[in-house]
Amino acid sequence: MHPLIKFLFRVFLVFITILLVAKPYNWYCNMNQSCKPFYFAYYMPKTEGKRPIEISLEVVNYRTDLDFSVENSFITTVANRKNIASYRVKNISDHVSMFQPELYFKQANFEKYVKRYRCLCFHNFKLKPGESIALVMEFEINPDIEDAAGVTSYAQKDAVKNDVISLQIGYRIK
User: Fold this and answer.
1) Domain co-membership, 84 together with 143
2) Are 89 and 63 contacting, i.e. CB atoms less than 8 angstroms apart?
3) pLDDT, tens digit, 9 for 90 and up, residues 125-164
4) pLDDT per residue over 62-108, tens digit each?
5) Domain that holds residue 22
6) CA angle 66, 68, 73 (to 5 degrees)
7) Is there a single domain that holds both residue 34 and residue 48?
8) How many domains does the chain have?
9) Main-chain phi, psi angles of 97, to 5 degrees
10) Are 118 and 85 in contact (CB under 8 A)?
């Protein structure tokens, strides 16, 4: 076999192996919280959407021992743009507190259009008395949300430039 073909075949096998290993690696990272998952889609260039999307970030805290707040409660974005939501949690009690934030959507039908790259979900956090931690959720909105919000054709998209899609995303601590 020609050396160039042999080399290309090996590169192809390495690429396929990486693709097959990425999914279990991401699962392991999400379960053990010991590493950052790797998403190929995160690094792929995408065209951004046309319609503005206003995202209201909320927190609901049922606990008296924690102070839970969002740093920016409002984001204006478009589809396929990477966004970061920053949260801060502080233990205001005199004992160690453990918590697990739970993500919720006010419009449950829009949840499928939010691609989360970093999420507070499934992570257990432990804070000593007086300790605070900054938490980050990184996400993007799928462009199909424009169709789901009532715009179905490109002609209609141009006609509704001032139409804004509103989303409410929040975390709650119980």
Assistant:
1) yes
2) no
3) 899 999 999 988 888 888 888 777 664 444 334 333 456 7
4) 999 999 999 988 888 888 888 999 999 999 999 999 998 988 888 87
5) 1-38
6) 170
7) no
8) 2
9) -120, 135
10) no
